[in-house]
Amino acid sequence: MPIPPILDVFVVWHPDDMSGAERFADLHEHFHSPAFSGLAGGAVEVYARSEPWDDGAAPRPLGIETPLGEGLPAAQFNAIIPVIDTNLLRAAADPSSLWSRYLREIAALNQKSGVGVYPVVAEGLQWGSSVVNQILGDIQTLPSNVNTDRGLFGRELAQAITQHIQQEAKRPARLTVFVSHTKHRSSEEAARSGPAMFERVRNHIQQSHLSAFFDAHDIQPGGDWEKTLEDSAASSALLMIRTDVYAAREWTQREVHAAKRSGMPVVCMYALTAGEERGSFLMDHVPSVVCDLADPDPGVKLALNRLVDETLKNTLWLAQTSYLSGDGFDWLPAQSPEPTTLAPWLASHREKQPDDKHLWVIHPDPPLGSAERRVLLQLCAVAGYDVDVDILTPRTFAARGGALRK
Q: Nearest CA to 283 among 316, 321, 305, 250?
């Protein structure tokens, strides 16, 4: 079935302000990255609202309250980013101008369900006494340093959108990062000077809006650590700090396993010094980032950026499943299925629906490789599903004409 757009991002700026065009290019590249390409259809799109239809007018309408044309519905969620710079202040200086009216309409949309407004103020701009500030000043702006850091811009906006969607869905809005690490170090790691990698990650988180994080090593002795771990994994994005002995530690294996079974986003940051004696099948099948130990800060930032993107992708996929489930799918995981997640799901599905004769699964792109698919089909056969099994992605489902074999 056709799936309506899930998230539209509108960047609004005055055509004479170059900063607006730059921020639009940043977001267009960010939301067309691999992190979001696996969602169904045109799930996320970025639109420019700068040039007017008529000379001297404000930009063309957003199409949120009133469709721009027949068959062009508004997205389920909309993010509006006004880029405030010198020429926008001048164009809106007259409260009766078309630009002032356009900005007031944006401010009013901020009160509507499914719409968030996230202004960006050009670096160094003094706008406190302007008409634009009177209109948009009560709305929280994104940090000014997003103007010079493309990765931070994408992360701040993705986090704000995620929290807005979660809040409207009556789910915990605060994005919590579960930092999975081991304090045990290999001899090669211990010989290196400087703080441990976990401390570097902690410092980055404390200096960001991701100030809430969960460290399983902080659980008090005598507490029910397993329950605490499970509860946290059910509501946290997990960052693996994969150092030399990380994959072999029982505690870290249980943390990653709990997060995967709960369907939470997981990102692996490789920070190996001498390498691993052996890895762990529990640790793979997730997005990964390489951290250069000689200059770790860029790798840490990239890992946090990717983790926030994965969290937004999960949130948007959850919104899409309300449409995809109508096609009859049994399981719609936010991550590609793997033995770690498929085996417990099969056991649960067999218990809940013992008479079910088919198994239809859809997950975000890219599709599984042929060897991966064969392993999963073998697991399904062991569970008694060896006749009517389909493991699809939105792309392969669409290529089939949007229909399951029945």
A: 250
∠ CA(314), CA(228), CA(236), 5° rounding?
20
7-45 core/surface letters (b: 16 or more CB in 10 A; e: else)? bbbbbbbbeebebbeebbebbeebbeeebbebbbeebbe
Question: Are 2 and 14 a contacting pair, CB within 8 Å?
Answer: no
C-beta of residue 178 within 8 angstroms of C-beta of residue 238: yes
- Let me know: does 360 contact 390? Beta carbons within 8 Å: yes
| For the chain, counts of helices (H) and of strands (E) | 14, 12
Q: Residues of CATH 3.40.50 domain(s) within the chain?
A: 7-168, 177-320
> Can you say how many angstroms the Cα of residue 87 is from the centroid of all Cα atoms in its chain?
33
Q: Residues 214-233, buried b or exposed e (16+ Cβ, 10 A)?
A: bebeeeeeeeeeeeebeebb
pLDDT digits (tens, 9 = 90+) for 161-177: 999 998 887 776 667 88
- Residue 344 CA to residue 329 CA, distance in Å, equals 17
* CB 40 within 8 Å of CB 49: no
Residue type for 124, please? G
What CATH number was assigned to the domain covering residues 7-168?
Answer: 3.40.50
Longest CA–CA span in the chain (Å) reads: 72
Mean pLDDT of residues grouped by 10 in the chain (406 residues)?
82 96 97 89 89 80 82 87 97 94 96 95 94 96 94 95 87 78 82 79 84 56 65 80 92 90 94 90 94 93 95 92 83 95 94 87 94 95 88 89 69
Protein fold of 177-320: Rossmann fold (3.40.50)
